[in-house]
Amino acid sequence: MIELHKEQQISVLHLARKTIADKLEVPCGLQSDFSDEIFQEHCGAFVTLHINGSLRGCIGFIEGVKPIPETIEEMAISSAFKDPRFSALTKNEYDNMDIEVSILSPIEEVKDVSEIVVGRDGLI
């Protein structure tokens, strides 16, 4: 199971926000540190955007295909500008945007339904 500590979680959120800000050409002074070895893991991840509590975009990879920072950058851009359910995010929406990043653990085969925990596990 992949678990990020608080500072790592903040780095991932800052990366998602900065990636979107850069694409929109909005000033953003956020910095992230990805020197920890865990960031080289290939994990599935989703980036979800909300504005005023309403879904504004959500895109992700179920399985890990790239290191965590590369995945977050790609999913942030996809959530903000390529989710087919929504038009591209605008500069006017940026300040009202909340970001949620979900890092997924590797896929595991379930042998018995009792192993599944609702609210923790996703199913494929």
Which segments are poorly predicted (pLDDT under 50) over 5 or more consecutive residues? none
Q: Which sheet architecture does the biggest sheet show?
A: 3 strands, antiparallel
| Net shape | globular
Instruction: State the separation between the terminal residues, measured CA to CA.
Output: 17 Å
Query: Kindly state the mean pLDDT as a whole number?
Result: 93
Number of strands: 3
Number of contiguous helices: 3
What pattern of helices and strands is seen along the backbone?
HEEHHE
**Radius of gyration based on Cα positions:** 15 Å
Q: Percentage of helical residues?
A: 25-40%
Q: Which structural class should the secondary elements be placed in?
A: alpha+beta
| Share of β-strand residues | 15-25%
Q: How do the strands line up in the largest sheet?
A: 2-1-3
What multimeric state do the chains show?
A: single chain
